[in-house]
Amino acid sequence: MSEERKNARHKASMEKQKAKVDANIEAASEERGVAVLVTGNGKGKSSSAFGMVMRALGYGQKVGVVQFIKGQQLSGEEIYLREHCPQVEFHQMGTGFTWDTQDREADMAAARRTWALARPMLENPAFDLVVLDELTYMLAYGYLDEDEVTGVIRERPREQSVVVTGRGGGAALQAVMDTVSEVKDVKHAFRAGVMARRGVDF
Ligand code: ATP
Ligand code: MG
């Protein structure tokens, strides 16, 4: 194909795409907070959530973050938020995870204590964005009541956005979310024997 023809085809395809996007923009008339679930087996769920935290902070919005798993290992996002963003309300479950503790009762109690910190944020219109990192596991293990959690997400303040991360996340959770993205695991460095990397993986 000649360059000229390639250019013409590209232009036509771009015009078509633009028309589609413009129509979607035209059709979107509702302004409110959104509920986003980032799930799947690939890497990038929590880092996506923290990307949204950065966006929200850029606009001076009020952000809350609750992490439902990573109790004992420190992460770059935690260090940064604690040191540089005192305006962000940050909580962690603060206990190791089940294959460390092997104590279901204790895990369940920790999950409920942590949910008791998350819930008031989801009821407080002052928060623009609330991140519930790794929440899906709490539902999958039955540590938290799915009806209660989905109900609170559904009934949250109209302007508030919420981001949930974690593998799985059942139909009831998906039903209450506006946007659901699945990160697919195509390849992961870990399986080639590369260690988790500071600044990339934690
Ligand atoms: P990240 O925090 O990097 O965005 P994630 O939230 O999508 O990852 P988690 O299941 O929470 O993934 O796991 C967190 C850690 O596990 C990270 O160090 C990440 O690199 C690693 N990880 C994520 N997906 C995989 C995978 N498919 N195989 C091996 N390790 C993974
Ligand atoms: Mg994660």
UniProtKB/TrEMBL annotation:
GO biological process, alphabetically ordered: cobalamin biosynthetic process; porphyrin-containing compound biosynthetic process
Region (Disordered): 1-24
Pathway: Cofactor biosynthesis; adenosylcobalamin biosynthesis; adenosylcobalamin from cob(II)yrinate a,c-diamide: step 2/7
Keywords: ATP-binding, Cobalamin biosynthesis, Cytoplasm, Nucleotide-binding, Porphyrin biosynthesis, Transferase
GO CC annotation, single: cytoplasm
Catalytic reactions of this protein: 2 cob(II)alamin + reduced [electron-transfer flavoprotein] + 2 ATP = 2 adenosylcob(III)alamin + 2 triphosphate + oxidized [electron-transfer flavoprotein] + 3 H(+); 2 cob(II)yrinate a,c diamide + reduced [electron-transfer flavoprotein] + 2 ATP = 2 adenosylcob(III)yrinate a,c-diamide + 2 triphosphate + oxidized [electron-transfer flavoprotein] + 3 H(+)
InterPro entries per UniProt: CblAdoTrfase_CobA (IPR003724), P-loop_NTPase (IPR027417)
Enzyme class of the recorded protein, top EC level: transferase
Superkingdom: Bacteria
GO molecular function: ATP binding; corrinoid adenosyltransferase activity
Subcellular localization, as worded in the UniProt entry: Cytoplasm
SUPFAM superfamilies in the cross-refs: P-loop containing nucleoside triphosphate hydrolases
Primary site of residence: cytoplasm
Assigned EC number: 2.5.1.17
Family: Belongs to the Cob(I)alamin adenosyltransferase family.
Role description: Required for both de novo synthesis of the corrin ring for the assimilation of exogenous corrinoids. Participates in the adenosylation of a variety of incomplete and complete corrinoids.
UniProt protein name: Corrinoid adenosyltransferase
Protein's organism: Mangrovimicrobium sediminis
Organism ancestry: Bacteria, Pseudomonadati, Pseudomonadota, Gammaproteobacteria, Cellvibrionales
